[in-house]
Design goal:
Length: 100
């Protein structure tokens, strides 16, 4: 069989099964669209996370209160007030603390 006769036979079969052909084409289009959407969504999320970490920079210090535990039960973050205003003044460069 030549290529031309094979193509004629294929198009004739597609024309005879038009609904099956259209549904298959629709499935392929939706499948490719879903893959493109998932990849672009993943890249967007990756870029967003990268920007968050980039905006933090190297001169950012996060200080958090500890959690208090009593008799095996731990309180949530900030249940123990371990930081004072003096601690804040020691870290704040505008008040003559470290970093200034």
């Amino acid at each position: 069989m030549s290529i031309l006769s094979t193509l004629k036979l294929a198009f004739r079969a597609m024309w005879r099964n038009l609904v099956r052909t259209l549904l298959t084409m629709l499935g392929i289009v939706f499948g490719i669209g879903a893959v493109i959407a998932m990849v672009s969504g993943g890249q967007g999320a990756q870029e967003s996370v990268r920007q968050v970490f980039q905006n933090l920079g190297t001169n950012v210090l996060q200080v958090l209160n500890g959690s208090q535990s009593s008799f095996g039960a731990a309180g949530g973050m900030g249940s123990r007030q371990s930081l004072t205003w003096d601690d804040w003044r020691a870290m704040d460069p505008s008040h003559g603390g470290a970093g200034g």
